Amino acid sequence: MHLTCEIRTIEGTTLGVLLLRPKTFRSGKTGYHGQGKLTLGSQRYQAQCQLVAIRSNEPNAQPQPQKARSGDGAKV
After folding, report:
1. Looking at the whole model, is its pTM more than 0.70?
2. For residue 66, how many other CB atoms are within 10 A of its CB?
3. CA distance 26 to 75
4. CA atoms of 19 and 60, how far apart (whole Å)
5. Coil, strand, or helix at residue 22?
6. Distance between CA 19 and CA 36 in Å, rounded?
7. pLDDT tens by residue, 16-34
8. Whether the Cβ atoms of residue 36 and residue 16 lie closer than 8 Å to each other
9. What is the DSSP string of 31-68?
């Protein structure tokens, strides 16, 4: 499965979309990572996004879904 990460202004104008591909990080944790370039006005930027699975240290523990906290900017 692949995911997307939309970068937009607070007003909702889309500035760019990153494709997030599955990745196993050096730590052994799994998640998604994507990067790309976008332009804001006349300035070019490189953007990155990563999602890393949070796991318990207990063997066979299942991650618990969490709700976004108000003010953290996450949309759920």
Report:
1. no
2. 9
3. 28
4. 30
5. strand
6. 8
7. 999 999 999 998 999 999 9
8. yes
9. EEEEEEEEEETTEEEEEEEEEE----SSTTPPPPP-PP
